[in-house]
Amino acid sequence: MRCRLIKEFLFEASHSLPYVPESHKCARVHGHSFRVEVAVEGEVDPATGWIYDHQCISQAMNPLLETLDHSHLNELPELANPTIETLCGWFWKRLAPKLPGLCEITVQETPHARCVYRGE
User: Fold this and answer.
1) What is the pTM of this model?
2) Is CATH 1.20.120.10 correct for 2-117?
């Protein structure tokens, strides 16, 4: 049986978008309660009934969340332009080597705006 497991994480951070017009509201420093979903896909192990031990996903994510939580994202390496699209890529680059079967990263910055990245 093949399934997809999705685990959700939260962090708070500020950012600004340096490549939008100065008049754009996102050019100013502002903050979000970001939600990140990490999805892994694979065969369910008949012995455990799991694709993954959920703790493995948390262990891979925790150092990243510690870096991002209550930070100003623009100050972090590789996040000078911290859009939700670039955040998806940032997470993917760091998680893919640690989570075989990683198939999707979703970063949501507001209840109405999110980005999904599938490593393409």
Assistant:
1) 0.94
2) no
